[in-house]
Amino acid sequence: MALLQTIKIQTKQVLNIFNTKEVAEHFLDSHYIPFDILQGISGEILEIIESITQKTTHYRILETGMGTGRFSYPFAIELAKKFPDSKLYGLDSSRAMLSEAEKYLPPDLSIKYEHVSLNKPLSYPPNFFDASISFYVYHCMKNWKQALNNVIRAIRKPTILFFIKERSQWGFHLDNRFDGIEMFDETYYRFWKEYFKNREIITPLPKVDISASNLDILGTYLEKKGFQHITKISAFKWKRKIDYREDLQSINLGLFTKLRIGLSAQDRAFLRKQMENWLTKEHIDYTKRIWEIPATIEIEVFYTG
Fold it and tell me: Helices 215-224 and 144-153 sit at what angle, rounded to 10 degrees?
């Protein structure tokens, strides 16, 4: 079975791991992007917002799915530099993630963050925010269309939505449809599914619509609602230093990267040994080639006046 198909099967078993202490505590490390890169990207976003709104003061920016504050921190710094009287509002449905954000974010930053479900109407009045930013969030939601509509109602016109995603190994894979390489088969998938079946760390989320992971689908939905679309590839890039054997696990197992941080050393050693049995030189060379591509950020902007 081709990897693209297998990932599609696997992601339907959406796992509620982002609200676990184990994952939240390691999120900044397991999803590392250099801080100065995130600051540069934040500056690019603020320039786009200013060019569309033609405002020069008092911005209210909404970040949906702020998590541990990985992007909130550098963005709030750049926001304060460019528009000192502005504020960032961060929302997330994971108490575990927000608990880590409270430890990570300096108290003097102009950020208000709170625990909410975006699938419910926001507590903010209509036209309260100037723009919304999200870092690869909506595919994790039970009903992304409902969540997106709740966000849109809270943004004044011109309504501006930013969808930010890392363009590294996954961006390369998806753009090239994995070069047709079959990384693993149905038996392989069943092995991992069986291994994690009785672990408390993973909880199935029923009836989750993951189609928002495809920005073409999300974009088509917004364009039907009258939004215009801009794609910007960030000028900021960074080079990864990786153990490509370990990162092949990330590609093959998807959510396993996040799950394994909650496992014992004995479990990790066992899983690594099992993984070695499936690796071939073709897999290793391919993965190494992917990770040698400099990573950057793709910024999708949707706006309507």
Answer: 50
Per-residue pLDDT of the chain (305 residues; tens, 9 = 90+): 233 333 333 433 334 556 667 667 777 766 778 899 999 999 999 999 999 999 888 999 999 999 999 999 999 999 999 999 999 999 998 888 899 999 999 999 999 999 998 888 999 999 999 999 998 888 767 688 999 999 999 999 999 999 998 765 443 333 332 333 333 334 344 444 555 554 443 344 445 555 666 677 888 999 999 999 998 888 888 876 555 444 444 444 443 444 444 456 666 666 666 666 555 666 666 666 666 677 788 899 999 98
Which pTM value belongs to this model? 0.73
Instruction: From residue 136, give the alpha-carbon distance in Å to each of 24, 63, 163, 299.
Output: 16, 11, 7, 10
Question: Is the peptide bond between 107 and the residue preceding it cis, with omega within 30 degrees of 0?
Answer: no
Which residues are CB-contacts of 62 (< 8 A; sequence separation ≥ 6)? 89, 91, 129, 131, 132, 133, 151, 154, 155
Rounded Cα–Cα distance for residues 230 and 52 (Å)? 12
How many structural domains are present in the chain?
1
Question: Is the Cα torsion angle 205, 207, 212, 214 positive or negative in sign?
Answer: positive
Residue 193: domain span: 3-304
Q: Which residues on neighbouring strands pair with residue 204, listed in sequence order?
A: 15
**C-alpha to C-alpha distance for 187 and 180, rounded to whole angstroms:** 19
The phi, psi pair for 290, rounded to 5°, reads -60, -50
**Are 181 and 286 within 8 A, CB to CB?**
yes
For residue 142, the domain's CATH number is 3.40.50.150
